[in-house]
Write a sequence for this structure.
């Protein structure tokens, strides 16, 4: 008997969804920072065993959209409820938000096998955790509640086994050697975006998008050219820094991560351009790989 299915990871920002996804897959596929809206796309991570294939799907954090980019991000979330075989709804021990109410209602109505994952339990007490479990039993009475710490890798094996139990029978969706549905261009752009998220404050990370202009694979080196788009000239100046020093730092950090990810040398060129309306421009958003319909 072979099992195969989509396990979609849903939740509010900053609850550790991407950390959990990477820990379950065993690879760093989703970028992780302390900033909200780190994940913009739906990213698949595929785990194969002798008699199973789990297709994990990390979605953007739930939010109330303010522009077309965020509308697209929420479409990934809505799709994750409709096409899942198993839902992982992730919360944590400190979250206080009602922005997920509509999504929780869709999960309740769906009848899908649901695991309510309480992450970051290393940051709370047993008494507070018991109270959280009781609260979530009332909100999602049909869900199985699983306390974990993705960062400390506590109870991940237990969670994994619960997922396996709920997978439907079926043949693999992807070849056994496939790790993700994304290509190298996507991961190159995400690595650059992660370095911007980690090294700039305020509006800069949320005003940036990355386009890979060229990606040439050679036997011993990959040559990559990328453009960072920002909304305003002032942001371009901040991003580049005095005599280009800040952009040079971003390029160096990104190159090092790319080399580790690819297992080979990388030559990386970065450019910065202003595109005043890219977050609300449908043509530009489609170019960056966002769904708008």
């Amino acid at each position: 008997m072979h099992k195969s299915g989509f396990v979609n990871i849903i939740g509010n920002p900053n609850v550790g969804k991407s950390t959990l996804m990477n820990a379950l897959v065993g690879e760093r596929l989703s970028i992780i920072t302390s900033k909200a809206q780190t994940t913009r796309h739906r990213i698949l991570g595929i785990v194969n065993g002798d008699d199973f294939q789990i297709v994990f799907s990390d979605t953007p954090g739930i939010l109330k959209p303010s522009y077309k980019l965020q509308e697209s991000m929420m479409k990934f979330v809505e799709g994750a409820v409709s096409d899942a075989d198993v839902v992982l709804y992730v919360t944590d021990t400190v979250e206080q938000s009602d922005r997920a109410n509509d999504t929780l209602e869709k999960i309740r109505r769906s009848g899908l096998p649901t695991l309510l994952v309480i992450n970051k339990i290393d940051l709370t007490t047993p008494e507070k955790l018991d109270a959280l479990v009781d609260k979530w039993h009332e909100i999602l009475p049909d869900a199985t509640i699983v306390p974990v710490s993705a960062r400390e890798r506590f109870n991940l094996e237990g969670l994994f086994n619960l997922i396996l139990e709920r997978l439907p029978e079926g043949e693999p969706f992807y070849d056994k050697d496939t790790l993700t549905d994304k290509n190298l261009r996507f991961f190159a752009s995400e690595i650059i975006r992660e370095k911007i998220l980690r090294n700039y404050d305020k509006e800069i990370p949320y005003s940036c998008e990355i386009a890979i202009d060229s990606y040439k694979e050679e036997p011993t080196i990959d040559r990559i050219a990328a453009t960072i788009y920002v909304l305003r000239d002032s942001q371009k100046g901040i991003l580049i820094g005095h005599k280009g020093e800040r952009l040079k730092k971003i390029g160096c950090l990104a190159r090092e991560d790319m080399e580790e990810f690819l297992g080979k040398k990388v030559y990386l060129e970065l450019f910065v351009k202003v595109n005043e309306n890219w977050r609300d421009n449908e043509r530009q958003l489609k170019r960056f790989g966002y769904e708008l319909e």
Remarks:
- The mean pLDDT is 87.
- The chain is about 35% helix and 25% strand.
